[in-house]
């Protein structure tokens, strides 16, 4: 069955938890015991409605403060699809968690409060989804019940968004607008009777027919995770390269180049468990053997020779900073691209980007939750894949050499 | 049979896996590449059995390149232990067993008393001791994010400090499919390859892969008694039963298999894997609804995890 990964984005009190709760409730995904627990706790907290945030805010600190601190993963399924929702925090100070949630999602639901319209946070959410190349965006205009289900309020938000989409980089992104009331259940799973002027799909109907990954990555890439060498008689000479195909497809007989060494060979076999295949598509884990005994190890990337990218020792990238220590020029980090970890040095920080699409400012440092343009020098060559061309090899993380923390994420491209 | 001796067959088709399977295999390979001493935490339950199959797939035709570790509470279902030993023998795996009873005998942990006494909490000490004894730096577990709300917050690579503690408010961001396993000496990482699977995904996978599981997962006759709306096994001496708690035989199965002292049975006639899948699909009760230890408080799981529970 298809799995659709979705991230939610919305400001505090825009109703993210209520929407997720509503989705679970109306698709009958909340089990009796969990529902009872929510009812009991809602009552104990003095609410006269079901507080669905209790289903998603899993940490004591979250329930104490009534806010979402970290990403929670919520699961439900219909007859057609399995859904994984990354419920990400809406607070400005948790931008890094929003980026985290959106990075693994194929679709995003951006909530907008019908009363407030497009606000600064909406710009930020949309900016991050554009930067991260999320394929499908659903703008859920929530709390329609509080504006008397007024068509004009909805249309105003749709047209305000038009100004944003003109500035987006990821042109293949599809954007859909749905007027909803998560609290009352209008147009979430069931069609609303309050908005006869809206003849589109409900939110769930829309999600059901989404078919992401229609965006072709440029070139097949196969980052090698580990080398499989069974120490047994039967497979004495077996030498397989284990990995997961990022973008494109690979087939037996394809001429491939091992990067960064540049050695060439041909795919002899594509294996998974005890079966052999002629072709493997993007997103699949497999083990590849080559015709020649070339040197391949973890960190190397196999590419189709005809689609080989250029290599570079200097990356231009947009970086989202996620660490409490600021990013300053001269600092060394481990740069991980694919499965390779290479020592790199921040050569310069060129600018900090405004997430409202209003441009950039000159700066010499990035602090927690900043997004900026950075130049990084590397000790070895890496692929110069642009993030707009390949999501997997066009991105990297920066690992702090002291704390080992994942301190930032980078998107290659100037 | 040791599956690594199987020949590779040619299917002449395009490889297109279930995305969850592809992701789990990817995670297993990252563990083996990034850590010196990984171990798979094996309880004999359906989730850890699924992990074993996924690990086989990840490294075929080589053997699974790490041992299994069973933290034995001493209160396991005998069917589970028999199954464990058979599986390990058939696949030629290395099994390490560490017993909670030893920690009790040494006075390192104190056994709970009373009606709700359970050894589930006591496992943490034995687990942390075993990780230290063998210098394991990555412990792979079958926890899923759909099980419980504190688990929904957990990363796939979850860093634990010297004391095995989980710092839930300061987790490493996990972006795209980057799994950062860089740690200090003494720290370890808990790894959850089936984080994104649901209970139904696991059962469907067991059905489609025809994976063998212990018989207690299927409907059978069992002596039980009713407490707090749940059916407890009265077949063994493990669960304390008061005199007024009457023993009745029922057709039941277990939906989750943990320590016997905290795992209740459910009334069921599902005696095949297909029927089990059908039952889970239509169930209105969550899996952990039958785990008494989760009901101790709103934050029971979060507290246990902070202390090093897996």
TrEMBL record, chain A:
GO terms for biological process: sulfur compound metabolic process. Residues 1-215 form the Tr-type G domain. The keyword Nuclease does not apply. It is an enzyme of class 2 (transferase). Gene3D superfamilies: P-loop containing nucleotide triphosphate hydrolases (3.40.50.300), Translation factors (2.40.30.10). Its EC number is 2.7.7.4. GO terms for molecular function: ATP binding; GTP binding; GTPase activity; sulfate adenylyltransferase (ATP) activity. Keywords: ATP-binding, GTP-binding, Nucleotide-binding, Nucleotidyltransferase, Transferase. PANTHER family: TRANSLATION FACTOR (PTHR23115). This is sulfate adenylyltransferase. It comes from Dokdonia donghaensis DSW-1.
């Amino acid at each position: 069955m298809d799995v659709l990964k979705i991230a939610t984005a919305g400001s505090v009190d825009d109703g993210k938890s209520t929407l997720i709760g509503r989705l679970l409730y109306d698709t009958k995904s909340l089990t009796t015991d969990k529902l009872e627990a929510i009812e009991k706790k809602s009552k104990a907290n003095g609410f006269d409605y079901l507080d669905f945030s209790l289903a998603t805010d899993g940490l004591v600190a979250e329930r104490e403060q009534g806010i979402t601190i970290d990403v929670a993963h919520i699961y439900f399924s219909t007859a057609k699809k399995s859904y994984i929702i990354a419920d990400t925090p809406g607070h400005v100070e948790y931008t890094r968690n929003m980026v985290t949630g959106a990075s693994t999602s194929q679709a995003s639901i951006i909530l907008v409060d019908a009363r407030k319209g497009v606000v600064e946070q909406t710009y930020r959410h949309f900016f991050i989804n554009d930067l991260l190349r999320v394929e499908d965006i659903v703008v859920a205009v929530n709390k329609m019940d509080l504006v008397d289900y007024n068509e004009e309020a909805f249309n105003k938000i749709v047209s305000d968004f038009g100004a944003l989409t003109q500035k987006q980089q990821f042109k293949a992104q599809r954007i859909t607008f749905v007027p909803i009331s998560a609290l009352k259940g209008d147009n979430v799973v069931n069609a609303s009777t309050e908005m006869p002027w809206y003849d589109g799909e409900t939110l769930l109907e829309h999600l059901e027919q989404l078919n992401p990954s229609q965006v072709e990555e440029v070139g097949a890439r196969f980052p090698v995770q580990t080398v499989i060498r069974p120490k047994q008689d039967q497979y004495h000479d077996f030498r397989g390269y284990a990995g997961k195909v990022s973008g494109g497809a690979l087939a037996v007989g394809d001429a491939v180049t091992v990067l960064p060494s540049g050695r060439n060979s041909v795919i002899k076999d594509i294996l998974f468990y005890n079966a052999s295949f002629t072709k493997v598509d993007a997103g699949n884990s497999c083990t590849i053997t080559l015709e020649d005994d070339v040197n391949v190890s973890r960190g190397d990337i196999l590419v189709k020779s005809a689609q080989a990218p250029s290599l570079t020792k200097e990356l231009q990238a947009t970086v989202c900073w996620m660490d409490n220590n600021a990013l300053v020029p001269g600092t060394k980090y481990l740069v991980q691209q694919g499965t390779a970890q290479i020592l790199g040095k921040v050569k310069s920080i060129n600018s900090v980007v405004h997430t409202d699409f209003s441009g950039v400012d000159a700066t010499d440092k990035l602090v927690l939750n900043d997004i900026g343009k950075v130049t990084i020098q590397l000790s070895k060559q890496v692929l110069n894949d642009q993030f707009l061309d390949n999501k997997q090899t066009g991105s990297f993380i920066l690992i702090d050499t002291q704390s080992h923390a994942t301190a930032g994420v980078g998107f290659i491209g100037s | 049979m040791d599956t690594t001796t199987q020949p590779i067959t040619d299917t002449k088709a395009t490889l297109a896996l279930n995305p969850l399977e592809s992701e789990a295999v990817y995670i297993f390979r990252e563990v083996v590449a990034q850590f010196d001493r990984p171990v798979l935490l094996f309880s004999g339950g359906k989730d850890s059995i699924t992990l074993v199959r996924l690990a086989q797939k990840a490294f075929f035709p080589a053997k699974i390149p790490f041992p299994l570790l069973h933290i034995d509470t001493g209160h396991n279902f005998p069917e589970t232990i028999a199954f464990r030993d058979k599986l390990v023998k058939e696949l030629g795996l290395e099994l390490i067993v560490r017993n909670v009873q030893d920690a009790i005998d040494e006075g390192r942990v104190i056994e709970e008393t009373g009606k709700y006494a359970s050894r589930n909490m006591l496992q943490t000490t034995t687990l942390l001791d075993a990780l230290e004894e063998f210098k394991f730096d990555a412990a792979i577990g079958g926890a899923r994010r759909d099980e419980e709300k504190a688990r929904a917050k957990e990363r796939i690579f979850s860093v634990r400090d010297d004391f095995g503690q989980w710092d839930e408010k300061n987790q490493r961001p996990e972006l795209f499919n980057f799994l950062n396993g860089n740690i200090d000496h003494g720290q370890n990482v808990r790894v959850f390859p089936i984080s994104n699977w649901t209970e139904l995904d696991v059962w469907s996978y067991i059905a489609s892969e025809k994976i063998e599981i212990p018989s207690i997962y299927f409907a059978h006759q069992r002596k039980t008694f009713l407490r707090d709306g749940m059916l407890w096994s009265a077949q063994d001496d493990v669960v304390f039963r008061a005199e007024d708690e009457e023993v009745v035989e029922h057709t039941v199965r277990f939906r989750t298999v943990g320590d016997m002292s905290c795992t209740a049975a459910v009334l069921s006639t599902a005696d095949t894997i297909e029927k089990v899948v059908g039952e889970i699909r239509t169930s209105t009760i969550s899996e952990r609804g039958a785990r008494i230890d989760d009901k101790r408080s709103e934050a029971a799981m979060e507290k246990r995890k902070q202390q090093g529970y897996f």
